[in-house]
Amino acid sequence: MSLPPTILPSITALHTHHPREHETFAPQAGVAAPRAFSSLRGSSAALSLNGDWAFRLSDRADAPDDFAAADYDASNWDTLAVPSSWVLHRDEHGQYGRYGLPAYQNIKFPFPVDVPCVPDANPTGDYRVAFEIPESWSGGKAVLRFEGVESWFKVWVDGAPLGFSTGSRLPTEFVIPATAGKHTLAVRVHQWSAASYLEDQDQWWLPGIFRDVALLYRPPRAVVDHFVHASYDHTTGKGTLKVDCEPAGHVTVPELGVDIATGESVTLAVAPWSAETPRLYDGLLDTGTSGETLPLKIGFRTVVIEDAQIKVNGKRVLFKGVNRHEFEPTRGRSVTRETMEHDIQLMKAHNINAVRCSHYPPHPAFLDLCDAYGLWVVDEGDFETHGFELCRWRDNPTDDPRWTAALLNRTQRMVERDKNHPAVVVWSLGNEGGMGRNIGAMADWVRSRDSSRPIHYERDLELRYVDIFSHMYLFHHQVEAIGQQKEPALPDVALDAKRRNSPYFLCEYAHAMGNGPGGLAEYQAIFEKYPRTQGGFVWEWIDHGLPKRLPDGREYYAYGGDFGEEIHDSNFVCDGLVFPDRKPSPGLLEYKKVIAPVGITGDAKSGTVTIKNKYDFASLSGLEFSWSLSVGGQVVESGTLAVPEVAAGASATARLPDITLPPSLAIGEGVWTVTAALAKPTRYAGRGHEVAWGQFPARFTAPTGLGTDHTPVVAQPTVKADTVTIGPGTFRASDGALVALGDLPVSDLHLEVWRAPTDNERFGGDAARWRAAGLDRLHHRTDAVWVQDACLFVRTRVSAAAHDRALQTTYRWSSDGSGLRLNVAVVPKGDWAGITIPRLGVVLALPSRLAQVRWFGPGPGEGYPDTKGAGKLGAHDLSIDDMQTAYVYPQENGARPDVRWAEVRGCEGEGGLRIDGVPSFALTARRWTTADLDKATHATDLTPRDKVYLNLDKAHAGVGTASCGPGPLPQYILRPCPTEFSVVLRPL
Ligand code: IPT
């Protein structure tokens, strides 16, 4: 309907939205060309501007920018540390909120998708700091360098605008005249900008100047940029060095006697660089500037694709990798060099040899450390547009020419900054940005600038533009098919041929969220079998939990939703191999074992051990081997093992000593353990650090004791009033409940098939189906209690409200006088088709004074059917508290699998209970119930009850990695079927 012209209201436009300066597609203005970080290493002066800056936070982007004026009075502003993210600042009570709050979303954008606009509510940090340029700099230039600012920033010096930049995890330089005297630097940072559409990585949003800021003096003729080309020819053993430099200069490498002009190349015998042998040569680059020489770290190595494999220095390499985000619980992405180094030491000590920089270039110091310590690095562009997937990829920047310049800019700044690192062997264009022509533009540019490294971008699944075939979270059997070059064909014949002859790795796999990841060993077997499948990168290194404090002072790790986010992705941000405090999780220990560089298998009959060197380059000369023989968990003899030289990829056989044990010792389970440890201290671990180990049964091995099904039944039950006793067991006659074992009160013994769902089960796994089937709320009705054949029988029907299916459970108790044997027979009744269960066992409650567990079985850490490689068979001793694994989101944890026997005692060693397996059981000991654990959402929700709960399980399901990827493999899934198991209980 239109109104007649005469009564048209006159319009006074009060506001029309035009894109604001931070809502443009342009990535930067007024900045210097990108260059190698190593170009800054010259001996010329540099001033760090890190420190306390004046700071003011506005909740909108349009606060007046008069604060940039040199004479602006900011005396009433706050002080904020640079580098840091303003949202992570806490008050003296540990509370957040002074400068807004962190927020976590994985894929979803936290604002309406409306390219290139962002909300009016746009936290904006204004910063001011004074600096002084010394007299001695006059005649040269000064460069203001920002290593990382999230997400858009504009810079003024003395009130004059210099320009702006985006690309949060990339450096920006502004060149200014080196005018001696005092100056004022003013910076405005918007949290949200058009560039935020390119930075949808799965992590906390952490705005601010979060990496270093420096002022660099550049004398005339100082190195602007340089590119070190150092290749290695494995057929001749020679390396070729050429250093391009602007301006031209001279290169010396004293150790090699090299003295060449820049642009000139020299070929000579060298030791190559690899992640296993990180040989760096020190060089010097001199461009004839007084007082400025540039140190070079040169590593000779050549990366090629050949035979559908990535080869370094002529050899196929196997990536035993991890995805690394930058994270520290109190500092966010402002990670210190100490932490970076600590991480690298932890990685190396856990046999990890590769890092994917997910999903942005790391702080430059990290790559220096990778060069020095030896890690293969996939350096990745600061680029992810995953949130567009939820809008069916409409307006995805990846395929939009308006964004080509911004995306190229990001790629160029990564490659230019990091091109001189031998550790960087693959360029990755970014992560989860869908597909589009800008990927082609980025790949073309990389190829034209640096043809020495292959290009990766996982979403280019057809390999239109990139060189490496890669997936995330693919199932084992699909990876195996790729190993065999039998993947399903692409419709385009030429692309199919290219892809089928390309190398493959999993840029992400084994989602390490909570308890898990399960199935690592099976992946590794595939990687080791097929040359094309060159390993993968576990997702991810660290749980990004932020410490939050309760009113009572207790701290816990917070995750998405804990800061009142309107939309969020809960604890999906906690999916690392180390906990937020960097303590290794059981997943890391499992990974260490699975990827160990030495395979150790033995055969007691022939007295031999086979040692397989799984390194790609290194010999085993850095390791020393030892053996031990133990019986029932007691080491009876040990010594060193002589192992001949074993070249990379080869195997050798070593002889075990011939040991005859006296018959008195040779009873019980005998096991050989062979260990490979560092023979010398390294940068990451001391001499004796265990690298690999293997175990195998001794010749005389035999299970013994009560834990067999042949124990004679001797003690007769006595029925007296309302009590039945059998051996040490006292039962209530009315319902057959065990009430005491000797003097030890016991309560609430019953079948349990429930466990507090793991993250893998809650996200993508079976938890919802289990709850629907009522496995978490089973009722136990006693059907019958009777004494027969020296046994007490208790038959129960275990079933859930609203369901007619049940587990008929019969407990049969008997005794040989000292021990009390429990046999549990479970028969599923009714329709259980399609229903799996998480575990099957009994739980019992004991007095809370029990505190310490000693057991014989794998350990000391937890283990589930698909995560039990790291457990070493032996006798272990832990407190109940130390048996808990405090996953950030509470869930099933702490089970010790395949336990032969266990003793639970008070903290002073006073009496308790011994459990013998028939032949073994899984043991969990806790101060809370399964239901408590299930209900808890943060570690501080769990408070000890006045009981200790023991789970004695016949079986646990595997944990898999279904939070992102495959669930447990078929052999690790439990389906109800008629089953029986036994344990023997004895008072201590
Ligand atoms: C994949 C992402 O690349 C990674 O950043 C992280 O989010 C991970 O998932 C889950 O934790 S994308 C996924 C949809 C396969």
TrEMBL record:
Listed PROSITE patterns: GLYCOSYL_HYDROL_F2_1, GLYCOSYL_HYDROL_F2_2
Query: What's the name of the protein?
Result: beta-galactosidase
Under SMART domains, the record lists: Bgal_small_N
Question: Per its UniProt record, what Pfam families does this chain match?
Answer: Bgal_small_N, Glyco_hydro_2_C, Glyco_hydro_2_N, LacZ_4
- GO BP terms: lactose catabolic process
Domain called Beta galactosidase small chain/: residue spans: 725-986
> What is this enzyme's catalytic activity, as reactions?
Hydrolysis of terminal non-reducing beta-D-galactose residues in beta-D-galactosides
Molecular function terms in GO for this entry?
beta-galactosidase activity; carbohydrate binding
Stated EC number for the protein is 3.2.1.23
Species per Swiss-Prot/TrEMBL record: Vanrija humicola (Yeast)
The protein's matches in Gene3D superfamilies, at most eight in alphabetical order, are given as: 2.70.98.10, Galactose-binding domain-like, Glycosidases, Immunoglobulins
What phylogenetic lineage does the species belong to? Eukaryota, Fungi, Dikarya, Basidiomycota, Agaricomycotina
Listed under GO cellular component are: beta-galactosidase complex
Record family assignment = Belongs to the glycosyl hydrolase 2 family.
